[in-house]
Amino acid sequence: MMLDVITQILNPQDYAWSWWSLPPMMVSVYFVAMWALIFSKTRFSGSSFAFGIYSISAIVWMGSYAICFSATEPDTAMFWCWSAYAGIPFIAVAMYHFTVEFTKRYSQRKWVLLSYLAMSCFWPFTRTDYFLRGAHRYFWGYYPLRAGWLYDLFLVSFVVFWLLGLRNLLATLKTETSDLRKKQLRMLCAAFFVATLAFVDFAAKYDIVVYPFGYIPVSIFLTMIFYAITQYRLLGIETVVHRTVLWALASLTILAPVYVFWIYWMPSHPVRTAIGMTLISFALFVIYTLHGQYVQPRIDHLFRRRKYDYVLVFGQLVNDIGGELDLGRIMDRLMAAFRETLYVRNAVVWVRSEDETEGLRLKEITAYGYEESEGGLSRDAARPGLLENMALYQWLEKDQTVLENAQIEMASPSEEARLNGKAFFEAHRIEALIPLLSGHKLIGAIGLGRRQDLRRYGRHDMILLGGIGRQMSSIINNAMQHKDIVEKERLDEELKLGREIQMALLPNTAPRVSNLLVQGIMIPAREIGGDYFDFIEHPDKEQISIVIGDVSGKGVGAGLLMAMAKTAISIYSRDENEPRAILRRTNEILFNHMQGEKFMSMLYMRWDGRRQCLRYASAGHEHIIVCRRRGATGDGVDGVETIRSGGLALGLMPDISDMLEDRELALNAGDKVVLYTDGVTEAINAAGEMYSLEKLVQIVEQYAAQDSTALMGSIKRELYSFMDGAAQRDDITMVVIEAIRSVGSDAKIGRGDVVL
Question: Is the model's pLDDT at 756 over the cut of 50?
């Protein structure tokens, strides 16, 4: 008898492939992968054991129904319906069990045991007519029908145990204090609510013709569990395998349009014409193109797999915060860059501080990632500091390179340094330590924890981090100096002299040139500003070079760097014709003298009167604002546009050739170009509001019909009106260029507080 049943079940003639079988079968495989992952990482955990029971029950449920949908005989289909109910009774109980273990409500374990026993009582009846009365064929295949009140009692019990599990999660969420646990519980609650939609599978058992799409919310439930593991280390799992799998599954969602089209649309709406196929192909092409441009990059970023151009990202960061003097804001931007670009799990920054009892030491000023780690560092935990007399401190200051965790054992200069470094790295859970230096003195350090993809820091990363350290050293040092200046009277005299020298270096007249007017103004925020502009004449009277730049920091150092840059630009402008080559050679000079301690953004333009165009190259400077005149008379404005200048600031790296590019900007008579430094767009009023590029563009557009002199005066007037008496935090520098038909006498250049 049993042999006949087995023979019938294994008879291939009783089956016919059905596409409806594929989704539940795929979800079964999903469950297998999930179970294998959790079991391999936390096999002795009560939570993983309970989730394992749930997974096995769900695999039996989904797998049996997948085969049932392909059955062609009712007896064969009924066998697989009975098989499904070998697992279905324990699904809700297993999830209730899981919540008891996860929320540590161990007093309910006895009720868990009774729940398993209660649902087991239904199991003997699942193969009788008291429970299921047969298999009915729907459009998706055979599906079981409930027999009577016993099945109703089973369904009520199923729902009760499911709700008990949800109640445990919600009750624990209300009393939980750990941020990480709260995130885990919120995700589990949301996943439970989604999985509840799978109850729709019971409808067809009551002769209600509703397709059992329970595999959809269940697969979403699993995906949310995956996400909780990925982001919040649910069940204590720490691995990149699950993140890789989840990323692959999320990326494969692009196949959904093809699946829906070929499986559901094509059979009932066959396409018989070439035009139809062309339209369909075009639609799919558009979908895949948009997915590649907008959706996939976000999926990659979500699962920490997006590959950024680190030089560009951190170069832009340095450009954005180069003039910032608030150490807190600098740290916030830096931490955000580490978190969202390098995908560093945790990071901490120390700066040099004088302690009355311990002497010179590195003091922690900011950190992230520790409070999110269950069992991680407590903010008041005893962690070793970094004192000047410690071997690790001396090692960092002497070596002046990024120190990686693996080097502690292999490259320590002494046993004391090895022990000191090992304890420090372990206590702070860091994998790399970046020194911040001013000259040869250690002024701080940046500690980076493990990456979220668990990859080690390689040689390329060490070079990148070293560059970041050099850039941030200058910025942090400027902020610290701004905060700690105490010798104001002595500095006032030096700064006054420096201001006179600096202003003498700026042009006071605009040279004659064919078809062009130029106006410039520089208003320093302090006695010596870090901004710079210049007009350089050439033997060819049809040409003129226009330069604008912004040095990091303020004071004597910024003024000296500006003078050095002006000298280099003036010399190289005689020998070179291409803006890119001039900036490249200037960068070499600045880097050789400054070694990355200071840097300078710069925009170099050369006007060619014969061709009516500006050739230019940028080294990390601000956007270019262009006003186009309207009509032949030039009495209106056709539009205002902004052009991203691009490039990397001068003085940060020995060679920036690959980051410089020559471009051209054609101008017609009446067109204007507005150049500026960040002192304009980042001006702050009394309410703490920033002026912004958008507001500057609006003002330029409002007054664009004016000539260059009046336009500059209007911009300055509107800017000071916005500031409303608030202190000027940064240098304000602007240059206005106007293409005309001819030039008369020399135009004066606005300097300091001269009203234009």
Answer: no
